[in-house]
Input
Amino acid sequence: MSGEKKIRVALDATAIGRGKTGNETYLSGLLEGWRVAEPEGVEIVPIFARISPAKGGHPEAGIPPGGFFKRHLVELPKAREGLKTDLYHGVYWMRPWEKGAYVLTVHDISFEVHPEWFRPGEAWFYRTLVRRAAERARKVITVSEFCRNEIMERWGIAADRVETTHEAARKMFRPGKKRKAGAPSLLFVSAIHPRKNLRRLIRAWRRLREGRFPDLELKVVGPAGWSAGADLRALRKAEAGGGAEWVGSYTDEQLRQAYQEATLLVYPSLYEGFGLPPVEAMASGCPVVCSNAGSLPEVCGEAAEYFDPTSEEEMAAKIGLILDSASRREEMRLKGIARAGTFSWEKMAEETAGIYRRAMEEGCGL
Output
């Protein structure tokens, strides 16, 4: 493609710096991978939610801070017009009347599959606007084959218009020194809301403490999300009884250390589009015991031990099985490091660039 005009792509990067953890991690990883991979023939121009100086080897644009509707209906379109790009990359949202060429990232459609996990009217809002945006996109990008299949089956979007780009652990997540002897500990990492299934984990942990593992500790890392009331009550009760700790949000360095120090990461999610904490844990050398729901078997492969997330008995049994076997934990640690190494943001950036090229070549979906 030497000598040919580059495809210029405007990217909605306004989630960066706004604490929108999933979108922010995805966008930061894409830009980090892009700087390393430098895909041929494509130039990406991120639009941030604030004016920022150019850095990292690519041009940037910025819009003033504002609410959801002002950002997506006014400020982002205005910024795109000034950039004169060939293609736009949106994340979940587009103007309902959008006419230009765009691709759309949809991490998952939990709002379609499990509307009961959302506030009244919220699932309908997402389902209506995101589906409309996806149906009109030249390409829909998602983060697992599990999500790709759901989008195709539930929304009837053709297979050649939905493509998967797996996420990855950031390079800071890496193995540390082997864990020191001491009380075994379970680590839970996630924003707290119903689909993350924390209450069943607390009950499984209590079963284990009342049985063969009386000194088993539980550390919960993550902020309170929507509809977290029942989970928080159970968590505070567990803290009051001893052995459990809720630390809220962690810095990246604190999280890396937590992964390295835990005996196991337990990830009991009822639905997952990708599952970054298990990949981060594996990259850090922490064995993973997780739900068999959603994308998790696809992402963790043979490196994890799985359980039915609706059965606290099975959850406790699988956790106990791994706690009982140092040799099995070491096997899982090594497999996890290797499995996490199959994902990278550079690979994801290259795959995304390929999607941009195909979107421009095929011109479908408009």
